[in-house]
Amino acid sequence: MGGLAALAREAGHKVTGCDAGVYPPMSDQLRDLGIDLVEGFAADQMHFQPDMYVIGNVVSRARLADGSPKFPLMEAILESGAPYTSGPQWLCDHVLHHPSNPRHVMAVAGTHGKTTTTAMLTWILESAGLQPGFLVGGVPLNFGISARLGLASAKGTNGHMHRFPFVIEADEYDTAFFDKRSKFVHYRPRTAILNNLEFDHADIFDNLAAIERQFHHLVRSVPASGRLVVNADEESLKRVLDMGSWSGVSQFGAGQAATKFAQQTSDPTSTAAQNSGSSTLNNANAHTFWSIQGPPNDFAVIHQGKELARVRWDITGVHNQLNALAAIIAAEHVGVSVPQAAEALASFQNVRRRMEVRGTVACAGSAITVYDDFAHHPTAIRTTIDGLRRKVGPNARILAVFEPRSNTMKLGTMKSQLPWSLEEANLAICHSGGLDWDAREALAEMGARAQVGHTVDEVIAQVVAAAQGGDHVLCMSNGGFGGIHAKLLKALG
Prior knowledge:
This protein is an alpha/beta fold.
């Protein structure tokens, strides 16, 4: 919603907004844009009398224990008959598909890596001179902002509209209390990345099949000339495609799918082998396969068994290799060559709160490094720690400090996966405040390698007691985590 407000402001609208407990970096960005932010949802905000209320999906018709509404402003809007819409619908109508300026929408979907992959794709297009619009659920360091309108589309000499790209992080969470479809159904992309898919959002989805159905709604909205960029290692995404697809499909992978493709291409009679010898890059409806080869900091981009380029950069983790590959494939769909995209990624600076170094503290002739990361799902926690482990080596100590803050984690749906997700950490410290399940019990199999603190202050004390020179303290949460990063740096100093 903060990014949406930034787009509306750039388009010339006067924008105000309300929320509870907004934290950096979005709070800083809104302030810098001159957007007034009101704390809370009091009904007296009706006096602003806006032309349109844009409702985020945090708002509901919920009641507090005393029977009063949790969101009085929403009740007042409904009673008054004032106009309102959802964020995704407003975005569709006024930015993505406005008749005067329709965009080539490039949507990045998946349980993990949406923000990073969206930022990668946007930077590739920017480096290629396409000046894309974008809306990212974070702040890409290459841009310093989370959203912009980008270059306007224009009619060519032949009278046809040339659609300039708009890259959007495509979330599967529901749109609003009055529209329970996934947000991305509104975006109608021409290029769609399906990066991965596993169970999440247990507060609104009953099972993985329900999420797969929403992903297929997205697939249904891509035109025949469009492209689906799909992770072939994900069984869930295979099931999504099995429901039907009507666009070009570019599959990618690094695991079993890559092995299977290599085996197929070794058989000269196979379709894969025959396609590997033909030019399929410019065929919109071609079904092709892409893979990676090499370590995360220096790897080859392979298409149909042939190396097209190499990516050399400082970003860690196999998951980010796959994120990069997906971004390269999507960028190729709008005319950016693979070598050009790979070169752009060499200067990609990542996103705030994605393995972001918040500071170092001298200790015993060495330094303790404190990181901030958005990881909150067990799979994301595991891949984030694995990426750091690959960077710092097998002998360095990693202290994983995490807050199970997402709705899914608060429900305890995935608590049994936490020991698995923390295997590469030397010590895990869980902030258990606000949980209805026993974190100590969930982490019991880790023994002395796991600790639990009920408050942020308790967690900080545990880190200070355990930290040694050379340690890497990785803080993971999808919220502000009580400002733990600055507090840790102060306490460790």
